Amino acid sequence: MSDETIWIKRARAGDQEAFARLIETYQTPIYNLTYRMLGDAAEADDAAQEAFLRAYTRLSTYDSRRSFKTWLFSIASHYCIDLLRRRRLTWLSLDEPLPSIYVAALAEPNPGPEEQTVRGEQTALIQRHLARLSLEDRAAIVMRYWYDLSYEEIAEVCGGTVSAIKSRLHRARLALAEALVDERRDASRRDVPSERLHPPERLYRMEAMR
Amino acid sequence: MNHAPFHEMMTAALDAPLPPADRAALDAHLAECDDCRELCEALNASDTLLTLAPAIPAPVGFAERASARLAGRASLARMIGGGMMLAVGTVAVAALTINPLAGAYGAFFRLPTFLTLARALLPFLDVCRAVGGGGWLALTALLDWSAQQPIVSAGLLATLPLVGLWAYWFNKLSPKVVTT
Ligand SMILES: [Zn+2]
């Protein structure tokens, strides 16, 4: 029996220490997932904690013949989707000008070593592109690129059939490529650095229209 | 002309090499279609960007904070459970107390035997024990919780003077019995 299996078994019996080991093991994959979905460090931190809490309370529904990792991913990605969907409704009804999660993606690059700046810009670029996708498409892309999951595993995490996931990824990849093309066209037209291209209002409108 | 089949091939090529016939058809199309060539180049660039993007590590102290939140939430749940047991138990005690009282009223006409008295008393004791258990559970969970969350222990301490204050005002407001 692997360590993980033992921790899961003990956590199921109410051992919080054992579950803490699982949190330690999966903290980075889950945090990266919530960050990629939400695009804001503080939001991602809170959502990742909530996802672990949900997992703990639902441990009895976990089928030990399946992968624990994909089960955890499924809980975390659905939590993010629920959160964004609820929030979008609130935003639309309150007519707030700008959700903060997109501001963070557009924040000034951190001062420091050049490499860190480039990395920060790339992260901002990626988050800007991801924000253009529907929530389900975003989750599928995150699963594909950061966790290298097969189509079968992505279907397990996100729900739906394998062929539905295939067409979802196809559509999402085209949308991401088009985002890149748009940005380049705008950049050559206005001759401005590509980081400043998409004002947050525009992202917001796209999110709201969907 | 329908470009969609070529788009399908382009995204399929990101996951696995295309069959030679598809590859040749796609290359031939890309040679003459500017839009698809631009899209294909962007697809590859976007794919590379995402493939190379590292996972963003969890912030320092994340695991500890998540575990503490879990422990806090668990003792809160126990406290709510204990509180509910306490409330249900109190109602049950009240119901069981009313019963013997009614019995006593009946006894005005006919005295109860020892057996009927014992029969009424046993469930009464049972419920008292359950209420005590519920109260104990709620109390220990509250203390547990306050050990993890300084703000809760501060709140507990703050309730002490508040209770004193409440007792003082209650005493002041309640009508005095005038003795002459
Ligand atoms: Zn074409």
Describe this protein's structure:
The complex is a heterodimer of chains A (210) and B (180). Chain A has 210 residues and is mostly helical. Chain A folds into two domains: 85 residues, Rna Polymerase Sigma Factor, Chain: A; 109 residues, Arc Repressor Mutant, subunit A (Orthogonal Bundle), CATH 1.10.10.10. Helices cover 76% and strands 0% of the residues of chain A. Chain A contains ten helices and no strands. The termini of chain A are far apart. Chain B has 180 residues and is mainly α. Chain B folds into two domains: 49 residues, no CATH class; 112 residues, no CATH class. Chain B contains six helices and no strands. The longest helix of chain B has 46 residues. Chain B is elongated and about 110 Å long. Chain B starts with a helix and ends in a 7-residue tail after the last helix. The model of chain B has no long low-confidence stretch (mean pLDDT 84). At the A-B interface, helix 2, helix 3, helix 6, helix 7 and helix 9 of A face helix 1, helix 3 and helix 4 of B. The site of zinc ion has 6 residues of chain B, from helix 3.
List the helices and strands and how they pair.
The complex is a heterodimer of chains A (210) and B (180).
Chain A (H helix, E strand, L loop, with lengths): L2 H10 L3 H23 L2 H17 L10 H27 L5 H6 L8 H17 L4 H12 L4 H8 L3 H29 L9 H10 L1
Chain B lengths: L3 H12 L4 H13 L1 H19 L9 H46 L6 H35 L1 H24 L7
Helix pairs in contact in B: 1-3, 2-3, 4-5, 5-6
The structure holds zinc ion.
Zinc ion binds next to helix 3 of chain B.
